[in-house]
């Protein structure tokens, strides 16, 4: 356990779907837990949740019930492992997607107090520049954007960065490159995004890690078992574990700058 460090909330987001964002959020949470941390994994993709499917579980309640049934967030947590809890969201509920930002902000405000019990809270957010994604990610001190080497992924990731930077004055972004053939290809993708951000936003972004293609990732999703549990020594697992170690190192560096409140609610 990382004693002396303030609780850190991390959002995992992407410009477009299909880049492996939820799989990274899930397995990064497992990696941080294995490193001796108390973890809360939150499915923050309201109305289009899929982490419960990846875990092979069927929750009776979800994050939306904080508002719908006026429940304490802690009553909704599902224990996955020792010191590792999960807060699911619902899928296929249009009215939740259409909730206004005030209601969604209320969810985060109600949740904020519970986060103090965890070293790390990982929010798996939706893809794109929807208002709720921008609001939720701007509330976390650390945000990781998942990209691939596809032009559409890079273009959409830049759009997310631009909106967060221009509308929410966010200055720090950490990039995870996923599903590339090798580290060189991943670095090329990162450098492309980095140059565009520097040229048009005068903004420097940071590389958090590169995850190479691995057939075990597909197998873990098919069999609804987290990669780090099904194939802990696979190539992708080891690279995700490296990212977890980097986050802990980064956490120690920024700890004095982190607010006493887990979420940056303004």
**Approximately how much helix is present in the residues?**
40-55%
Alpha carbon gyration radius: 17 Å
Number of helices: 11
Strand order of the largest sheet: 3-4-2-5-1-6-7-8
Which band does the percent of strand residues land in?
15-25%
Number of strands: 8
How does the SSE layout of this entry go?
Layout: E1 8-14, H1 21-34, E2 39-43, H2 51-55, H3 65-68, E3 78-81, E4 84-87, H4 94-97, H5 101-112, E5 120-127, H6 131-139, E6 142-147, H7 151-168, E7 174-180, H8 183-201, E8 206-212, H9 215-222, H10 227-230, H11 235-254
Parallel strand pairs: 1-5, 1-6, 2-4, 2-5, 6-7, 7-8
Antiparallel strand pairs: 3-4
Structural summary, described in words:
α1 (21-34) packs across α11. 45% of the residues are buried. The chain has one domain: 3-Layer(aba) Sandwich (Rossmann fold), CATH 3.40.50.300. It is built from 11 helices and 8 strands. 44% of the residues lie in helices and 18% in strands. It is globular, with a radius of gyration of 17 Å. It has helices at 21-34, 51-55, 65-68, 94-97, 101-112, 131-139, 151-168, 183-201, 215-222, 227-230, 235-254, and strands at residues 8-14, 39-43, 78-81, 84-87, 120-127, 142-147, 174-180, 206-212. Strands 3-4-2-5-1-6-7-8 form an 8-stranded mixed beta sheet, sandwiched between helices. The protein is α/β, with parallel strands linked by helices and 266 residues long.
Short characterization:
An eight-stranded mixed sheet has the order 3-4-2-5-1-6-7-8, sandwiched between helices. With 266 residues, it is an alpha/beta fold. The model has no long low-confidence stretch (mean pLDDT 93).
